[in-house]
């Protein structure tokens, strides 16, 4: 073996993709000390996206102050290379920022808009936004407000909507935002295809994970439906059925409606931007992975994106994962050669995550022993 590629997603809640790369590389070098090891940590829109670009592209880390999901002041950052900025929604509206006080009816994406504004004011003309890991359900209205979109109720009073008040929007004015963003290309990285509302929409599918009970889900879904109607009647855009419009609490819909942006699969956007195809030339094997692989992994996740590119170059792909769920075997038809779980002992997640780094190292040791001795 002369060339190894390591290109995993993070294991949510336990290891970042950068940490995973480091552990796997260390083990590879124990068995193949003279091999070339290329680390390509991937985050396809969620937490860690900016860090990946900072490492992969040598991008500048731009620090800013903005407000979090409950309007508290936070320090965050985004990645910048040339006139391109890569931002993550999770930086100022992430689920971890609301731990212990989850309430998607009250949280806002205003801080995300502040981050976009900062990038544009400082010369960025291509904005790439990762939509993963949000604690919000405001359809990006907070973000839009920070960029100059004005929302008014029936009484003509201007306000910044949240998930609980989207239904109160009677008038939308995008003139200032259109002017501010007129020379910008905005792309949202989105690895889900859920619509804005309905049984498979933002509220029903994702709001419970953000703290919503059954009653709140009904309210949030109703408000999203009403907002979609308002957007269609006033802005002439039907965002309700756009695949991915339900991403990040329907922020996907807001990107399209309020910022004239587009939604694209996160993994494809990232692999193109980092020149993945060139990096894997002449590779002998690729190690990828994610926290859990199952039927959902077929919908634009990192493992499938990496495997699809690798298949074109006939490079074997081993997916190192935490859990293996129902439907995972379907990935074998999409370029994955083998799936290996690092879970060595049956434990609840809270206990398993504490030993995940050692378990990953031990699992790689086992795989590499098999390879070195040519058992596989």
Automatic annotation (TrEMBL):
Give yes or no: UniProt keyword Transferase: yes
Check the record and name the Pfam families matching this protein.
Gly_kinase
- Which GO terms label this protein's molecular function in UniProt? glycerate kinase activity
According to its UniProt entry, the protein's GO biological process terms are: organic acid phosphorylation
Keywords, in A-Z order: Kinase, Transferase
Q: Which domain of life is it from?
A: Bacteria
The family line of this record is:
Belongs to the glycerate kinase type-1 family.
What protein is this chain from?
Glycerate kinase
């Amino acid at each position: 073996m002369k060339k190894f590629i390591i290109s995993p997603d993070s294991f949510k809640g336990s290891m970042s993709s950068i940490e995973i790369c480091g552990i796997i590389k260390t083990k590879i070098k124990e068995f193949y000390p003279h091999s070339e090891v290329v680390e390509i940590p991937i985050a396809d829109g969620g937490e860690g996206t900016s860090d990946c670009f900072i490492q992969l592209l040598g991008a500048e880390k731009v620090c800013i102050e903005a407000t979090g999901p409950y309007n508290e002041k936070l320090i965050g950052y985004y990645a910048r290379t040339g006139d391109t900025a890569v931002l993550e929604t999770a930086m100022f509206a992430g689920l971890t920022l609301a731990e212990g006080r989850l309430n998607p009816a009250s949280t806002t994406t205003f801080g995300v808009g502040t981050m976009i504004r900062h990038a544009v004011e400082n010369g960025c003309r291509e904005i790439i936004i990762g939509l993963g890991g949000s604690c919000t359900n405001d359809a990006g209205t907070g973000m839009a407000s920070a960029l100059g979109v004005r929302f008014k109720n029936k009484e003509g009073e201007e306000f910044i909507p949240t998930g609980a008040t989207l239904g109160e929007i009677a008038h939308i004015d995008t003139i200032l935002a259109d002017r501010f963003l007129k020379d910008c290309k905005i792309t949202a990285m989105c690895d889900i295809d859920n619509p804005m509302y309905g049984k498979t929409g933002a509220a029903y599918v994702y709001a419970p994970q953000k703290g919503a009970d059954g009653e709140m889900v009904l309210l949030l879904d109703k408000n999203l439906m009403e907002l979609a109607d308002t957007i269609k009647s006033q802005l002439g855009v039907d965002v309700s059925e756009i695949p991915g419009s339900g991403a990040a609490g329907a922020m996907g819909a807001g990107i399209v409606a309020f910022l004239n942006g587009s939604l694209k699969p996160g993994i494809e956007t990232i692999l193109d931007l980092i020149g993945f195809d060139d990096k894997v030339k002449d590779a002998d094997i690729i190690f990828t992975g994610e926290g859990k692989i199952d039927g959902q992994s077929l919908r634009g996740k990192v493992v499938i994106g990496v495997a699809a590119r690798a298949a074109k170059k006939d490079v074997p792909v081993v997916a190192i994962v935490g859990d293996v769920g129902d439907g995972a075997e379907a990935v074998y038809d999409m370029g994955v050669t083998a799936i290996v779980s690092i879970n060595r002992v049956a434990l609840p997640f809270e206990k398993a995550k504490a030993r995940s780094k050692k378990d990953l190292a031990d699992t790689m040791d086992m795989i590499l022993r098999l390879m070195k001795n040519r058992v596989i």
